[in-house]
Design brief:
The chain is of the alpha+beta class and about 600 residues long. It has 14 helices and 22 strands. It folds into 3 domains: about 220 residues, no CATH class; about 160 residues, no CATH class; about 45 residues, no CATH class.
Length: about 600
């Protein structure tokens, strides 16, 4: 995927004040789309977790803006959705027309994976196509071979992952295609919730289209699109300037994902992800050669366009153009122009159809983490140590004769970074979703959340400690089922610059008579009323020599019960007695290690 073009000297098309006003208007349109979608949605995954995307593009799919509340893995792929739709329609001899609403979820046509369904509304002024208003969202069921749309870890091919929508006009020329909606309702387990969310997406995209048209009519097409080109050029210049500050060179890193650790087939477990970044002048070339071959009959493959590209772009953008330093930079396609990505055909990061992809999330997060590890060789003070990956549980069952499905995203944690401890119990990297409130879970589902807290004594030591993951314990209040996709139960998050590796996660199913340890990926299995799932996420890696950590910070951690006095002594060289630092003993401990 080549988005590189030669850097140009700035040539503005509109004055800067007008450009800033139009940029603000575009961002507000995307934000309004997001707010409307959340308020109209039926499911907690959109309403509470904000697992959705909203953006505007030009007629070719170049992104003009995106909703800041959305997740990078939802808004980031939207240009690919649009390009996939245009390509699919052209192959049929069709095109977009006024009044169309197009549904799309093809993971080999720009979508991230098929539960992330996009609805695309073309914006016309008369017969003039101005662009597209698009919403994407994760849906709780899309008709896969087991309940739910996550935790599907045993699909043999993409056909087992649920319904495929390849540029389907659900509304054509203003007229609803009722047969499509009948087909959708008849092939998913919770049609009221899913179709309700889809209708919310359509309405939000139509609002975005209306606002975009109003903006163009107010300022004129030449002014609006001139401003958009200026804004993309500005974002490109900012990215190129940040790349130019990097030392030219080649930087490579390798990490591993668990894969299926309980599988006898070595091709399904202990899978490497390799990232090699070449920095030259103001461009980056990202090569994934060396990454494991695709797993053709398990759905942990990552779509090249829609997951791999977004994981890489997100990592590079967040590291090189940290908003704490640069403020708000327009989030548009200009940011990706200096970055070229290559992955060999047939590897995990560029699978060949019909290899399944529905569980691409954790491998994609690991890819983003590997990009960070590689860049750490060039800019060590701008990256975090290894990140604790997430996991997703799909709960399902029947209540009062009706099926129910719930998706729960369990937090990971960030590694420490220069000057800062790792963030605790957060959705990391390209997820950026929020947690579901316990009250929402327990008021709608036959589940009880008995524990929700930070793990104890799993902090990765460092001058800046690793982040701590959460522990959650769920009790089934009725017979039900679950499936799980996750990673990070074998391979620990990496420590950096003398910091210690983090701790892997763990997962247990607990009944009255047994505790069953489970791997990070669990195909659908039954659970009886009263059984529990105990879920502990991985903790991030430490950054820097732990014996250089401020003694006051170590004392605070002990008083906060993050780890014990024994750990403070052994891992940090800090002696604590009676709630105070024993300065003399601490000095002896730290100097003793130097002498050794």
């Amino acid at each position: 995927m080549n988005h590189v073009r030669n850097s140009k000297s700035p040539v503005t098309r509109v004055d800067q004040i007008t450009g800033a006003v139009i940029q603000g208007a575009l961002e507000n349109i995307a934000i309004e789309m997001g707010h409307k979608l959340m308020r109209m949605s039926y499911s907690s995954i959109i309403r509470e977790s904000e697992d959705f995307g909203a953006a505007l593009t030009d007629p070719t799919g170049q992104q003009l803006c995106e909703c800041k509340m959305s997740t990078p893995l939802q808004s980031g792929p939207i240009p690919g959705y649009v390009r996939g739709i245009i390509k699919q329609l052209a192959a049929r001899g069709d095109s977009v027309k006024p009044g169309d609403v197009i549904m799309h979820n093809d993971p080999y046509g720009g979508a991230s994976h098929n539960p992330d369904v996009g609805f695309c509304v073309p914006v016309f002024d008369g017969d003039d196509l101005l662009g597209f208003a698009v919403t994407t969202a994760h849906h709780l069921d899309v008709g896969a071979h087991t309940p739910g749309s996550c935790g599907i870890v045993d699909a043999a091919d993409t056909y087992a992952e649920g319904l495929q929508f390849k540029a389907i006009k659900v509304i054509e020329g203003g007229k609803t295609n009722a047969m499509v909606w009948h087909m959708v309702r008849d092939n998913i387990r919770i049609p009221t919730m899913v179709v309700g969310d889809m209708e919310a997406q359509i309405a939000a995209a139509q609002i975005g289209a209306q606002r975009f048209l109003e903006l163009v009519r107010r300022y004129g097409k030449a002014t609006v699109f001139g401003a958009c080109e200026d804004l993309m050029d500005y974002s490109e210049r900012m990215m190129r300037a940040a790349i130019r500050d990097l030392p030219d060179g080649v930087y490579s890193a390798t990490t591993h994902i668990d894969g299926f650790t309980d599988d006898a087939n070595p091709a399904r477990r202990d899978l490497p992800i390799v990232v090699t970044i070449t920095v030259k002048d103001d461009s980056l070339y990202v090569d994934l050669t060396g990454t494991a071959p695709q797993v053709s009959d398990r759905p942990i493959n990552m779509p090249f366009e829609g997951t791999v590209d977004c994981a890489i772009w997100m990592s590079i953008r967040s590291i090189l153009l940290d908003s704490a330093v640069y403020g708000s930079i327009p989030q548009n396609s200009g940011l990706t122009r200096p970055i070229e990505i290559f992955a060999p055909k047939g590897c995990l990061a560029n699978p060949i159809f019909p290899a399944p992809t529905i569980a691409r999330f954790c491998p994609g997060n690991a890819l983003a983490d590997t990009v960070m590890k590689a860049l750490g060789q060039a800019i060590p003070r701008q990256i975090s140590a290894g990140v604790g990956n997430l996991r997703v549980i799909a709960f399902s069952g029947d209540a009062q004769g009706e099926p129910w499905v719930h998706m729960e995203i369990l937090e990971g944690s960030y590694g420490g970074r220069y000057g800062m401890d790792g963030m605790d119990a957060v959705d990391t990297l390209f997820a950026n979703t929020r947690n579901n409130p316990i009250e929402d879970i327990e008021s709608h589902l036959p589940l009880r959340v008995d524990r929700y807290e930070l793990r104890e004594n799993v902090v990765a030591p460092g001058e800046w400690r690793g982040g701590i993951s959460s522990v959650r314990e769920f009790t089934f209040l009725s017979d039900a089922g679950f499936s799980i996709e996750g990673d990070g139960q074998k391979y620990s998050p990496w420590g950096f610059d003398g910091g210690t590796d983090g701790r892997p996660g763990k997962l247990d199913q607990v009944s009255k008579t047994a505790v069953t340890a489970m791997p990070s990926k669990v195909a659908f299995r039954q659970a009886r009323a009263g059984e529990r799932l105990e879920c502990a996420g991985p903790s991030g890696g430490g950054y820097g020599d732990p014996f250089k950590r401020a003694t006051a910070a170590v004392l605070d951690d002990v008083l906060d019960e993050l780890f014990s006095e024994d750990i403070a002594r052994e891992s940090y060289g800090v002696a604590i007695r009676g709630g105070q630092v024993d300065e003399a003993m601490t000095k002896k401990l730290r100097e003793g290690r130097k002498a050794g």
